[in-house]
UniProtKB/TrEMBL annotation:
UniProt keyword Protein biosynthesis present: no
Top-rank taxon, per record: Bacteria
Domain ABC transmembrane type-2 intervals: 28-254
Compartmental location: Cell membrane; Membrane
Protein name: Transport permease protein
UniProt KW Magnesium keyword: no
TM region(s), chain numbering: 27-50, 62-85, 106-133, 139-161, 173-191, 229-247
Family, per entry: Belongs to the ABC-2 integral membrane protein family.
Keywords carried by this UniProt record: Cell membrane, Membrane, Transmembrane, Transmembrane helix, Transport
InterPro entries hit by this protein: ABC2_TM, ABC2_TM_bact-type, ABC_2_transport, Nod_factor_ABC_transporter
Classification of source organism: Bacteria, Pseudomonadati, Bacteroidota, Sphingobacteriia, Sphingobacteriales
Length: 255
């Protein structure tokens, strides 16, 4: 059992390195996942921020959690696209004919999503610090934020894996990105939900991104998180379990 586990983790590391090389060679991925959220943050803070009333002294402090989630959402389409390409080109079948763990190739994409998003998010936080972002949060609060962001990354990664593994065309694989992008926009990421019309406000307050944004915002401002953190965790864990089961079911059909 120990030997099998060692081989499995070694195989995953190899697949992680393979996928990370593809990302670093892909300029459009870097632009979309890192540069676009930074550009959006600059736009909202320096162009639109003065007209948005959030009750905070510095709008970038309010905005940053939403920008971090948007960066993760931007990466979901690429996860689906890369999985589709590996499937279409027969990469998974080729790997499965070799003496490596059957699911290592799939987990390589999942780990790549975690690592690449972590790098992108650190760059975005550094830019936010240059823009005036300040947080009184301690190390434990920052670790909690990192954990929630990793959980949200896994949530979107496993959601994106389903169309990536089951789509018949590239467009079908990438279509998952569109609904995911809407969730941060219709939430408390940019403005308080109390400023929204009734039906929009009801949707914004009862979808997962708002609870995640509010939890991260409370942690970074060193405020009590209340029940929002449990709602955020329940959303993420529930969605991960469902998406993981669907993704693994599709993967095992042909891999």
């Amino acid at each position: 059992m120990e030997t099998i586990n060692n081989y499995f983790f070694n195989d995953m590391v190899v697949m992680l390195r393979r996928s990370m090389r593809h990302i670093f060679r892909s300029l459009d991925t870097i632009i979309t996942v890192t540069i676009m959220p930074i550009a959006m943050m600059l736009l909202f803070v320096y162009v639109l921020g003065g007209a948005i009333q959030t009750g905070t002294k510095n709008y970038v402090d309010y905005l940053l959690p939403g920008i971090l989630l948007i960066a993760i959402a931007n990466s979901a389409g690429y996860v689906s696209y890369r999985l589709f390409l590996d499937k279409q080109r027969g990469i998974f079948e080729r790997f499965n004919s070799m003496p490596i763990a059957r699911s290592a190739a799939l987990w390589g994409h999942v780990l790549t999503s975690l690592v690449s998003n972590a790098i992108s998010l650190m760059v975005i936080v550094l830019v936010a610090l240059l823009m005036g972002f300040r947080s009184p949060a301690g190390i434990l609060s920052w670790l909690a934020v990192a954990g929630i962001l990793a959980l949200f990354t896994l949530t979107l990664t496993w959601i994106a894996a389903v169309p990536g593994l089951s789509a018949k065309t590239v467009d079908g694989a990438g279509v998952i990105a569109y609904p995911i992008h809407f969730l941060p926009l219709i939430s408390s990421a940019f403005v308080p939900t109390k400023s929204m019309p009734g039906p929009v406000r009801a949707f914004a307050e009862h979808q997962p991104v708002t609870s995640i944004v509010e939890t991260i915002r409370a942690l970074l401002s060193n405020q009590p998180v209340g029940h929002e953190i449990w709602i955020a965790l329940a959303w993420c864990i529930g969605i991960i379990l469902v998406a993981y089961l669907f993704a693994m079911r599709v993967y095992k059909k042909w891999a």
